[in-house]
Amino acid sequence: MNDVARDFIERMGLMAERDGMFSRIAGRMLGFFMLDGKPHSLDDIAEQLQISKASASTNARFLEQMGVLERCSSFGDRRDFYRLGDSPWEDLFDVARHRMENVLRLVDNTASLLPDEMDIARKRLQVWREFYAFMLDEMDAQAERWRQRLARTSAVEAGSLPAAISERD
Amino acid sequence: MNDVARDFIERMGLMAERDGMFSRIAGRMLGFFMLDGKPHSLDDIAEQLQISKASASTNARFLEQMGVLERCSSFGDRRDFYRLGDSPWEDLFDVARHRMENVLRLVDNTASLLPDEMDIARKRLQVWREFYAFMLDEMDAQAERWRQRLARTSAVEAGSLPAAISERD
DNA sequence: TTGTTTGTTCAGTACGCACTGAATGAATTG
DNA sequence: CAATTCATTCAGTGCGTACTGAACAAACAA
Questions:
Q1: Which among B24, B139, B144, B163 could disulfide-bond with B13, CB atoms 3.0 to 4.6 Å apart, if both were Cys?
Q2: Is there a contact between A110 and B142 if contact means CB atoms under 8 Å apart?
Q3: pLDDT tens, residue by residue, B117-158
Q4: Interchain CB distance below 8 Å, A99 and B19
């Protein structure tokens, strides 16, 4: 593997960790698969990223559940292969959206539960509620715009999604 | 302090921590000041949140630097007071924006540094570059829309921003 | 059946980081 | 000057959590 690639992968890991997106190794995996579209087995991933097989398994499954990675298989091969999902951004949107939804729910709930003598606080919370509701709407619209923009240019990278796999390096 | 309020503050702390926004105590502080618009001294904060004064100081200054809190003072009082800034969302936008900017820079940089034999990877990265650039533009537009929407309804909560403070409980 | 090859689970560990208490510094008063 | 009252800094500690190695489970081959 290349020095530039290694550096990229490492930085992706650090950023993912710092930004609270996911663990360092999961971030490295994302970086790895952003560079390489081909499917890789767990052993392969573990070796390339120099991590334990256990970690590879755990984090790959985690990223799969997030929708970032995709598990795929091959005829006559018992191994699991992973590669970048067909719409990883879609799910990155969802993560952010879900977090915001939680805060909205909390603020909303609290505002309604607050005792009468605290309606100054309630009014303050309602502005925040508005803010988070606004953000949610905006994010949905944003995701939709990206989807459309992607559809317009998707011809460029078509034909890159076989259900089964042919070969590996 | 109320049970509902305490629960809200606690949950805000947990969410802030889980979402990687900031530390648990910083999250609790934000929750506290979302409910109470009045300025509070460090000792006051430390007592209400049942944390050490050191932690109160550190986290308050951190939130101030993030633009979420605002330091204010009072005549004849040497103490520092804190309260919610006049536009905390503005700065929450900035945090998210800055993070995204970092990823964009990394992806962009890597794409240009990749050796010639890896231009399949480069093309893959360029789609991601597009994605993050798109997100940045969208976020700016989004922040602007919120600003305008807030300006339309700001009359509701006007008169809540004295430079110095009058009284405390 | 036994022996391989895979993925997963789990106890243990190591590491980072947020929080605390005590010391320090700075400003003010008597 | 000493004493007080505030904020900040810093070494130490505790806690959570991500990672590892080894044991386990499951699927398959011989």
A1: B24
A2: no
A3: 999 999 999 999 999 999 999 999 999 999 999 888 865 454
A4: yes
**CB contact (8 A) between residue B34 and residue A138:** no
Q: Are A69 and A85 in contact (CB under 8 A)?
A: yes
Nucleotide nearest to B78 (CA to C1'): D6
Q: Which nucleotides of D are covered by protein (CB under 7 A)?
A: 5-10, 17-22, 27-28
Q: Both ends of chain B: CA-CA distance in Å? A: 13
- Across all residues in chain A, what is the average pLDDT? 89
**pLDDT tens track for B55-74:** 999 999 999 999 999 999 88
Kindly give the residue spans of alpha helices, DSSP state H, lying in chain A: 3-18, 24-35, 42-49, 53-66, 88-113, 119-153
A14, B108 contact by CB (below 8 A): no
CA distance linking residue B8 with residue B15, whole number of Å: 10
Contacts of A135 in chain B (CB under 8 A): 142
Host H or E run for residue B81: strand B77-84
d(CA A148, CA A145): 5
The answer to whether the C-beta of B55 is closer than 7 A to strand C is: yes
A17: nt with nearest C1' to CA: D18
Q: Is B84 helix (H, G, I), strand (E, B) or coil?
A: strand
pLDDT tens-digit map of A104-115: 999 999 999 999
Nearest by CB to residue A134, choosing from B34, B135, B146, is B146
Answer with the residue of higher pLDDT: B169 or A118.
Answer: A118
- Strands B69-74 and A40-41, bridge-based pairing: unpaired
In this complex, the answer to whether residue A137 has its CB under 7 A from any atom of chain C, a nucleic strand, is no
- Nearest residue of B to residue A15 by CA position? B103
- B29 CB and strand C closer than 7 A: no
pLDDT at B143: 94
| Burial group, residue A25, by CB count within 10 angstroms (0-12, 13-18, 19+) | buried
Q: Which residues pair with A70 in a beta bridge?
A: A83
